[in-house]
């Protein structure tokens, strides 16, 4: 439908006449146009009356008079300067407007009208949620196509000022139109960065989306344990959960009512495999114990900057979750060599390990990892100042499949460790030596002469001569060198 049809729908349908075409606070827009004093509490439901065929659009409403709030002829409403999810009737323009015989042929409809439905659907699959809602307001044909169930496997909302609780309620209500109270198509919900998300929004998702498999609420610090428990209990197929930055979340578990109904092995009912709890500062060993006991199928677990965790929590993790392949405990300052000894019990299943800035880790703990986790591909030990050439030697001789190694800010690692690494780790592709004070050009030349597949080398703040950098460039032609030498380019 072209511009002409857009005008028709605006003049014929009351629902679309009062809706702004500027979605300045939607998911693909910046928040520079957002109101400065956005409300933080959910207001009375002024615009949530379900029409026969509702269609939400996530917009920043234009200036409106107070009389418009309760008017029955408008489909958009503004409570103060708050951004909310709008409900409006579908466009009333014809699916295929009749061409006027008096108009020139080039003015009898836009060229886009000739596209078949499957082409439109293919285009719509690339649009974010807010833009898809805008397309539903163009004409009746676009409305029907935009609400095709195949396009609504994912809801993606972003923005500090977006009233995400109400947006989720409107969207799920529309998606539940054919199957009352249940949305069987929605599998992914991404609302990361929506700081106004509260437990109410998650309760809506939990109640309406039983087929949910992927949920991201990163940075939504108003979310609490109770709402997360509700989602986990009502969405048995949930596999991917990102609650990073949710400081109120201290545990992942089923609700008490669900736990009572299940057997003592009810932890197996939680299907979560990917869990990101980065920056969940309140997480403690007891919480990790509960998580491990309930989420026994975990394969990816990220606990970056969970500063209260200790070696005891890692012991619980290894007992209940033997399938962990990727683990990050970076910046957990209480993790020591004893914790690495527990992690080493994962043996050949472990592929990814980050222990960056864990100052209590030394060669002893790295030796455990090197001995038992011989299929390790990635190791981040940046800032582990107790690591020396001996630890690097154990890694090089046992972890022959190592592809990525970060040992930046390890002042005790020298050229001797790099020589052992170069003579054994032929699959190495990424190596970071940032701020390694003992590294010289000789070590770099040995690495370049043996690791031909090297793709990234970080030697920032390292005292290496210009000749060594040129030597690396000649032998590893595909290698990107990150450096601080102004003479090398």
UniProtKB/TrEMBL annotation:
Its keywords, alphabetically, are: Cytoplasm, Cytoskeleton, Leucine-rich repeat, Repeat, Ubl conjugation pathway
Family matches, as SUPFAM superfamilies: F-box domain, RNI-like
What's a BP term from Gene Ontology annotated to this protein?
SCF-dependent proteasomal ubiquitin-dependent protein catabolic process
Q: Name one Pfam family in it.
A: F-box-like
- Start and end residues of each F-box domain: 109-155
Q: Which GO terms describe its cellular component?
A: centrosome; SCF ubiquitin ligase complex
Q: Kindly indicate whether the keyword Repeat belongs to this entry.
A: yes
> In which broad location class does this protein mainly occur, judging by the first location in its UniProt entry?
cytoplasm
InterPro entries per UniProt: F-box-like_dom_sf (IPR036047), F-box_dom (IPR001810), FBXL15_LRR (IPR057207), Leu-rich_rpt_Cys-con_subtyp (IPR006553), LRR_dom_sf (IPR032675)
* Protein's cellular compartments: Cytoplasm, Cytoskeleton, Microtubule organizing center, Centrosome
Q: Where is this region: Disordered?
A: 1-78
SMART domains on file? FBOX, LRR_CC
Compositional bias segments (type: Low complexity)? 1-31, 65-78
Q: Where is the composition biased (Polar residues)?
A: 32-55
Pathway membership: Protein modification; protein ubiquitination
| The family this protein is said to belong to | Belongs to the FBXL7 family.
Return the protein name: F-box/LRR-repeat protein 7
Name its species: Carassius auratus (Goldfish)
């Amino acid at each position: 439908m072209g511009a002409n049809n857009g005008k028709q729908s605006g003049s014929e349908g009351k629902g679309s006449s009062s809706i702004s075409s500027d979605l300045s606070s939607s998911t693909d827009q910046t928040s520079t146009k957002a109101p400065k004093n956005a409300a933080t509490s959910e207001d009375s439901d002024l615009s949530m009356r379900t029409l026969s065929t509702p269609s939400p659009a996530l917009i920043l409403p234009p200036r409106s008079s107070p009389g418009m709030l309760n008017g029955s002829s408008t489909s958009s409403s503004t409570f103060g300067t708050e951004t909310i999810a709008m409900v409006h009737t579908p466009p009333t323009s014809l699916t295929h407007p009749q061409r006027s015989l008096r108009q020139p042929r080039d003015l009898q409809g836009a060229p886009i009208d000739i596209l078949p439905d499957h082409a439109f659907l293919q285009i719509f699959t690339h649009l974010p949620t807010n833009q898809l809602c805008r397309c539903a307001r163009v004409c009746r044909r676009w409305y029907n196509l935009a609400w095709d169930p195949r396009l609504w496997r994912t809801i993606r909302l972003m923005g500090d000022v977006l009233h995400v609780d109400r947006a989720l309620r409107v969207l799920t209500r529309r998606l539940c139109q054919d199957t009352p109270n249940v949305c069987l198509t929605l599998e992914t919900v991404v609302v990361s960065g929506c700081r106004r998300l509260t437990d109410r929004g998650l309760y809506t998702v939990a109640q309406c989306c039983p087929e949910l498999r992927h949920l991201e609420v990163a940075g939504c610090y108003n979310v609490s344990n109770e709402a997360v428990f509700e989602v986990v209990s009502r969405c048995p197929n949930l596999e991917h959960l990102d609650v990073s930055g949710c400081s109120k979340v201290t545990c992942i578990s089923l609700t008490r009512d669900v736990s009572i109904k299940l057997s003592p092995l009810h932890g197996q009912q939680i299907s979560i495999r990917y869990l990101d709890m980065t920056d969940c500062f309140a997480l403690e060993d007891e919480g990790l114990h509960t998580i491990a006991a309930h989420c026994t199928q975990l394969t990816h677990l990220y606990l970056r900057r969970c500063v209260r965790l200790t070696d005891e929590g890692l012991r619980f993790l290894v007992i209940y979750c033997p399938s962990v392949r990727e683990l990050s405990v970076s910046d957990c300052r209480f993790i020591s060599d004893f914790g690495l000894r527990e992690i080493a019990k994962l043996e050949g299943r472990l592929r990814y390990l980050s222990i960056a800035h864990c100052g209590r880790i030394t060669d002893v703990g790295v030796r455990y990892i090197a001995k038992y986790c011989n299929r390790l591909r990635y190791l981040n030990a940046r800032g582990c100042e107790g690591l020396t050439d001996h630890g690097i030697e154990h890694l090089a001789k046992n972890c022959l499949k190592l592809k990525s190694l970060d040992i930046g800010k390890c002042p005790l690692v020298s050229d001797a460790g790099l020589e052992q690494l170069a003579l054994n780790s032929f699959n190495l592709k990424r190596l970071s030596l940032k701020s390694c004070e003992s590294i010289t050009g000789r070590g770099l030349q040995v690495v370049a002469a043996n690791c031909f597949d090297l793709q990234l080398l970080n030697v920032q703040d390292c005292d290496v001569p210009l000749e060594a950098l040129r030597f690396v460039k000649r032998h590893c032609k595909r290698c990107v060198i990150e450096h601080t030498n102004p003479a090398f380019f």
